Amino acid sequence: MVRLRFFRTPQDEAFACVEAEQGTLLLDVARAHGLPLHWRCGQGTCGTCRILLVHAKQPALFTPSARERNVLKRFGFAASTEPVWPDRPDTWRLACHVSVGSEDLDIHLPEA
């Protein structure tokens, strides 16, 4: 099981700490635990479930799906259409496209 901590802002303490199995979508984890992660479609088209991630392997590179990349670009949360992106704490992701990996994660929700 992987430990996931949820934050509202970088300055706040975690408001939730849960464990999840590898391969589970972060959106599904949030929904299962009743966490306040906003979402509408769950399909990666609306951009509502955007999050910021912090983990031990940063900085690194990752390859977002074409859908995630296009949605984040369309809504102004990403500037690049390149196939490989930097994985940094300030890189927006979609919770419906991010699966739990092997590393503990800190998940920052956008301010309402």
UniProtKB/TrEMBL annotation:
Question: For this protein, what is any one GO molecular function term?
Answer: 2 iron, 2 sulfur cluster binding
InterPro entries in the record = 2Fe-2S_ferredoxin-like_sf (IPR036010), 2Fe-2S_ferredoxin-type (IPR001041), 2Fe2S_fd_BS (IPR006058), Beta-grasp_dom_sf (IPR012675)
Q: Tell me which Pfam families the record gives.
A: Fer2 (PF00111)
- State the SUPFAM superfamilies in the record: 2Fe-2S ferredoxin-like
Q: What are the residue boundaries of the 2Fe-2S ferredoxin-type domain, all occurrences included?
A: 2-112
**Superkingdom, natural source:** Bacteria
Q: What is this protein called?
A: 2Fe-2S iron-sulfur cluster binding domain-containing protein
